[in-house]
Write a structure and sequence with these properties.
This protein is α/β, with parallel strands linked by helices. It contains 7 helices and 12 strands.
Length: 262
């Protein structure tokens, strides 16, 4: 993975920061902006640098919004809180993992599928404690400080995983409900050839729920998909990829064996 970090535009108001093998997103509206997910441990400096470059010196978001709380989506905490005193929003079912009460189920390296899957026994699954900063997403489906967006519960990868959708341009921030790279494979992650895949298999807890979540997102007919891993996709390539994933989910996404495989 020669590229350590990269910033590019998904839409005029949505930036992607790729840091190693995971994506973070910056959504902006006028003078206000929101960070979606918080990447890997060690990326806080790059997050701050990107924010200052695009939003001005000392810029801080209105909030951080999480798709879920796995280690590669919350890694910049608590370092970011040394610079920002902002709320963090997540689904209520993620709260135990974000308040130090319950660890995530451990990853399953036995599934094979590639080097990154085999190394997953080294990936942290411990709960973090964000204290009073963390708050549940509103029950009405709105996304705080992101007008025009709604959150959609997309469990499977985690019980409280959510995705974010904007009807106006059918832009989807999918988190790890599905991804656009075979995340288990070191080669695929290095090459970053965009291709629709199921959620990262070594951490996915509930494959039945994961399938229903993919079906739910495909039914939205997204025009743009910004995922937690892989290059954002759009247009026919995205549509065809989602159709194929839905129709052949067990073959394409679910491992042949593993502790979470039914």
């Amino acid at each position: 993975m020669a590229v350590i970090s990269k910033v590019d535009e998904v839409t005029p108001d949505l930036l992607r920061l790729r840091y190693l093998f995971v994506n973070l997103y910056f959504w902006s509206s006028g003078s206000s902006w929101v960070l979606v997910d918080a990447g890997l441990n060690g990326c806080a400096g790059k997050v701050l640098e990107t924010a200052e470059r695009h939003f001005g010196k000392g810029a801080k978001p209105e909030a951080v919004i999480l798709t879920h709380g796995h280690f590669d989506h919350v890694g910049a905490f608590p370092q970011l809180f040394e610079h920002w005193d902002v709320p963090v929003y997540a689904h209520r079912q993620e709260m135990p993992h974000l308040t130090g009460q319950a660890d995530y189920p451990p990853p399953d390296p036995s599934i094979g599928e590639g080097v990154l899957a085999s190394l997953s026994f080294t990936y942290p699954n411990k709960a973090i404690d964000l204290g009073s900063r963390v708050r549940p997403l509103p029950e009405d489906g709105g996304v705080p400080h992101m007008p025009g967006w709604r959150w959609i519960q997309t469990p499977g990868h985690t019980a409280g995983h959510v995705s974010f959708f904007r009807e106006q341009d059918r832009c989807l921030i999918a988190g790890d409900a599905f991804v656009t790279v075979k995340q288990e494979s070191l080669y695929a992650v290095a090459v970053q050839e965009p291709e629709v895949h199921g959620p990262p298999a070594y951490f996915t807890q509930d494959w039945k729920a994961a399938r229903h979540s993919v079906e739910k997102l495909a039914a939205l007919r997204p025009a743009i998909a910004a995922t937690g891993h892989g290059t954002p996709m759009r247009g026919d390539g995205l549509s065809r990829g989602l159709e194929r994933l839905v129709s052949d989910f067990e073959t394409l996404a679910v491992p042949d064996h593993g502790k979470y495989v039914p």
